[in-house]
Design goal:
- This protein is mainly α and 130 residues long.
- 78% of the residues lie in helices and 0% in strands.
- The longest helix has 29 residues, at 2-30.
- The protein is globular, with a radius of gyration of 16 Å.
- The chain starts with a helix and ends with a helix.
C-alpha cells in the first residue's frame, strides 16, 4: 500500500496543478466575454499583460512537474520542456478560441503567452529552484 501512495504523491503534488490550471485556462477561453469575470484589480491591465501572467504561472507549473516528477531526462531539460509545453498549450488555446463566439485566435496573444512562460520559468529556475 505504501509504495502506491509514494507513486501517487508526485502526481498529486506536481502534475495535478498543471492539469487543474490548464483546465481553468480552457474554461476561461470558452467564455465569450471573459473580462466580465475578472477581478477589478486586473481590469486595468492590458490583454497582453494578462496573457503573459497567465502563462507565467502555467510555465512554472510545467517546470515543477518536469523537474521533480517526470524522470531524469525531463528533469535535466525541464526549462526547455516547460516553455515548449506552455507554448504548445497556447497554440491549442488560440485554436480553441477561434471557435468561441466573440473570440478569435491571435498570434500576438500566443507571443505573450510564450514570453510570459519563458521569462517566469527562467526566473524560477535561477532563483527558486537552485
Amino acid at each position: 500500500m505504501v509504495p502506491r501512495i509514494r507513486k501517487a504523491a508526485p502526481v498529486c503534488r506536481y502534475w495535478l496543478p498543471v492539469g487543474v490550471y490548464a483546465g481553468l485556462i480552457f474554461y476561461l477561453s470558452s467564455l465569450s466575454y471573459p473580462e466580465d469575470y475578472l477581478p477589478s484589480l486586473l481590469e486595468d491591465l492590458g490583454d497582453k499583460v494578462l496573457h503573459a501572467i497567465e502563462y507565467a504561472v502555467l510555465g512554472i507549473l510545467w517546470y515543477r512537474a518536469f523537474r521533480h516528477a517526470a524522470g531524469t531526462w525531463a528533469a535535466h531539460h525541464s526549462l526547455l520542456l516547460a516553455i515548449v509545453a506552455s507554448v504548445g498549450y497556447g497554440v491549442t488555446d488560440e485554436l480553441h478560441q477561434a471557435f468561441v463566439p466573440t473570440r478569435e485566435a491571435d498570434v500576438w496573444d500566443l507571443l505573450f503567452d510564450g514570453l510570459g512562460s519563458a521569462i517566469a520559468t527562467l526566473v524560477w529556475q535561477r532563483t527558486v529552484d537552485t
